[in-house]
C-alpha cells in the first residue's frame, strides 16, 4: 500500500509540473457535488492532458432525476459545440449516459454495490462533424460507494449445541457466524458485533468472535435440560442506527453421573413357597437414578443377612433392577423367614463428582417362607422282608411306617399298588402299615416279590409317596 501511494503521488505531481509549464490542451473529468456524489483519485496522463481516473457514486440512490456522476471536458472545447463526447464500456448507454455536448455523465439506473461494485468505462472527445478523435481514449473507473443497506444474516441458523451439565463457568459451547453483504473495507457497514437477546444469565457471547460460553457454573440437567438462546448480530460496530439480524441457538445439557441411586423403598417384603424350584425369581428391587444412560446403571449385591447362602441377586441391565433368586432349597419347618440387606451401586463413577457421593444405596429385604403340603415320608427309603414259603395266611410278614413332615401332621393311610401285586398275594393295614400274607407262597415258583406301598395323607389325598418293597 505505501508503494502504491508513493506511485500515485509521483504520477500526480510530475504531470502537474509539466502542465504548469506547457499548458497544453487537455481533457479532464470533473467530479460533481450533487446528491452526495463522491470522486477521488489521481490524474492520468493522456497526450499531455489529464483526466481523473476514478469516480464514486452512492449505491441505491433514487431521486426524481438521474444522478450526475461527473463531467468530461477538454481544453480543446471552446464551447462552440464543435466537440462531441463519447462514452463506452461497462454499462455505457444502459446504466451510464453521457451528454455528448456538455460531457455530463449521469447514472440512469439505481446501482447496487452488492450486484456490481465498479464499472470500467472509456471517455473520448471527437470532432462533432468528422468524428475524428481529438484526444486519445481515456479509461476510468466508477466505483459504487457502499451504504449500509444489508442486514447481517446467519446463514447456518438455527443452531444446536450441547454442553455437559455441571460445567465450570466459561466453558465453550459453540460459535456462530453472521455475514453482511455490505463492503467490509469501507466504513463499518459490515463490522458486526454479537450480543445475546435471550438466554442470560446462563450463557454469554464474545462480541467479536461470537463464541458462546456458559455464564453460570454447575447448571443441572435434572433441573433443566434445554435452553433457548436468541443471538443478535448488529452492523455499524453495534452502534445506534446499525442493522441487525437474529438467530436461535438451542443448547442441550448432556448428562454426567452427578446423582447416586436411591431405592424406591427402604423395606421390601416377599414370600416364597418352601418347595419352589431353584433359580426361581422371588422378587425384584429397584434403585432409581436421576441420571440417564450408562450414568444410571447400577449393580446389585447382597451384602448382609441370614440368607446370604440361600439367595442371590442379579442385575437386570434392561430394567435396571435387581432380581432375587433362590439358590438352595428352603424348609419351612427349619426356618420360616429370612432378612437380607441389598445394595445398589453405580457402575460408572465420575471422579469429578465423587464429593457428591457415595454413589450407592441400601435396602432391607424380608422373605417369608410359606409352608408347602409335602408328601408323607417313609421312615426308611427301602424295605427288605423275608418270609417262609410255608407262612400261614394272614400272618404279619412286615410293617412300614411314614409321617407327614408338615406342621399339621396329617394322619397317614397305607395301600398297595395292585399293578405291582396282580395276584393279590399281600394285604396291608391302612392304619398301621402292617403287611400280611393273603395267599400261600411257593418259593419254587417265585423267589422274589416286588410290590409298591403308597402312603397318603388323609387331609390331602393327592399328597402321597410310593415305596418299593
From TrEMBL:
Cellular component, GO annotation: adherens junction; axon terminus; catenin complex; synaptic cleft
Protein source organism: Ursus maritimus
Subcellular location: Cell membrane
PROSITE patterns on file: CADHERIN_1 (PS00232), CADHERIN_2 (PS50268)
Domain Cadherin: 74-154, 155-263, 264-378, 379-457
Gene Ontology annotations of biological process type: adherens junction organization; calcium-dependent cell-cell adhesion via plasma membrane cell adhesion molecules; cell migration; cell morphogenesis; cell-cell adhesion mediated by cadherin; cell-cell junction assembly; homophilic cell adhesion via plasma membrane adhesion molecules
Principal location listed in the UniProt entry: membrane
Molecular functions per Gene Ontology: beta-catenin binding; cadherin binding; calcium ion binding
InterPro entries reported for this sequence: Cadherin (IPR039808), Cadherin-like_dom (IPR002126), Cadherin-like_sf (IPR015919), Cadherin_CS (IPR020894)
Keywords associated with the record: Calcium, Cell adhesion, Cell membrane, Glycoprotein, Membrane, Metal-binding, Repeat, Signal, Transmembrane, Transmembrane helix
Descriptive protein name: Cadherin 8
Coiled-coil regions listed in the entry: none
Taxonomic placement: Eukaryota, Metazoa, Chordata, Craniata, Vertebrata
Amino acid at each position: 500500500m505505501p508503494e502504491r501511494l508513493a506511485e500515485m503521488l509521483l504520477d500526480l505531481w510530475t504531470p502537474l509540473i509539466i502542465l504548469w509549464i506547457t499548458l497544453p490542451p487537455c481533457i479532464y473529468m470533473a467530479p460533481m457535488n450533487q446528491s452526495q456524489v463522491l470522486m477521488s483519485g489521481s490524474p492520468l496522463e493522456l497526450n499531455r492532458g489529464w483526466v481523473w481516473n476514478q469516480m464514486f457514486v452512492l449505491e441505491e440512490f433514487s431521486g426524481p432525476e438521474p444522478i450526475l456522476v461527473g463531467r468530461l471536458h477538454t481544453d480543446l472545447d471552446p464551447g462552440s459545440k464543435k466537440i462531441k463526447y463519447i462514452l463506452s464500456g461497462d454499462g455505457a448507454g444502459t446504466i451510464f449516459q453521457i451528454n455528448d455536448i456538455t460531457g455530463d455523465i449521469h447514472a440512469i439506473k439505481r446501482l447496487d454495490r452488492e450486484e456490481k461494485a465498479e464499472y470500467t468505462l472509456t471517455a473520448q472527445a471527437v470532432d462533432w462533424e468528422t468524428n475524428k478523435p481529438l484526444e486519445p481514449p481515456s479509461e476510468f473507473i466508477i466505483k459504487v460507494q457502499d451504504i449500509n443497506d444489508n442486514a447481517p444474516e446467519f446463514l447456518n441458523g438455527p443452531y444446536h449445541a450441547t454442553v455437559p451439565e455441571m460445567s465450570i463457568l466459561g466453558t465453550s459451547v459453540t460459535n456462530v457466524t453472521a455475514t453482511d453483504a455490505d463492503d467490509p473495507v469501507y466504513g463499518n457497514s459490515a463490522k458486526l458485533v454479537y450480543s445475546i437477546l435471550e438466554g442470560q444469565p446462563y450463557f454469554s457471547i464474545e462480541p467479536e468472535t461470537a463464541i458462546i460460553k456458559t455464564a453460570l457454573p454447575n447448571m443441572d440437567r435434572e433441573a433443566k435440560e434445554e435452553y433457548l438462546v436468541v443471538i443478535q448480530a448488529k452492523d455499524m460496530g453495534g452502534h445506534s442506527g446499525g442493522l441487525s439480524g437474529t438467530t436461535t441457538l438451542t443448547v442441550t445439557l448432556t448428562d454426567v453421573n452427578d446423582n447416586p441411586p436411591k431405592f424406591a423403598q427402604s423395606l421390601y417384603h416377599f414370600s416364597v413357597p418352601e418347595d419352589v424350584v431353584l433359580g426361581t425369581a422371588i422378587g425384584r428391587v429397584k434403585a432409581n437414578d436421576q441420571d440417564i444412560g450408562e450414568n444410571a446403571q447400577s449393580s446389585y449385591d447382597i451384602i448382609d443377612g441370614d440368607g446370604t447362602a440361600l439367595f442371590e441377586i442379579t442385575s437386570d441391565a434392561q430394567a435396571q433392577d435387581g432380581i432375587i433368586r433362590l439358590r438352595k432349597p428352603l424348609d419351612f419347618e427349619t426356618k420360616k423367614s429370612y432378612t437380607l440387606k441389598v445394595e445398589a451401586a453405580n457402575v460408572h463413577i465420575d471422579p469429578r463428582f465423587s464429593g457428591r457421593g457415595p454413589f450407592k444405596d441400601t435396602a432391607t429385604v424380608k422373605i417369608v417362607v410359606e409352608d408347602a403340603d409335602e408328601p408323607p415320608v417313609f421312615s426308611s427309603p427301602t424295605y427288605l422282608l423275608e418270609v417262609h414259603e410255608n407262612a400261614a395266611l394272614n400272618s404279619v410278614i412286615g410293617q412300614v411306617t411314614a409321617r407327614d413332615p408338615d406342621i399339621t401332621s396329617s394322619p397317614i393311610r397305607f395301600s398297595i399298588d395292585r399293578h405291582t401285586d396282580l395276584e393279590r398275594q399281600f394285604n396291608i393295614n391302612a392304619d398301621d402299615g402292617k403287611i400280611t400274607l393273603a395267599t400261600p407262597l411257593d418259593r419254587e415258583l417265585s423267589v422274589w416279590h416286588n410290590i409298591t406301598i403308597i402312603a397318603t395323607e388323609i387331609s390331602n389325598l393327592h399328597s402321597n409317596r410310593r415305596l418299593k418293597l
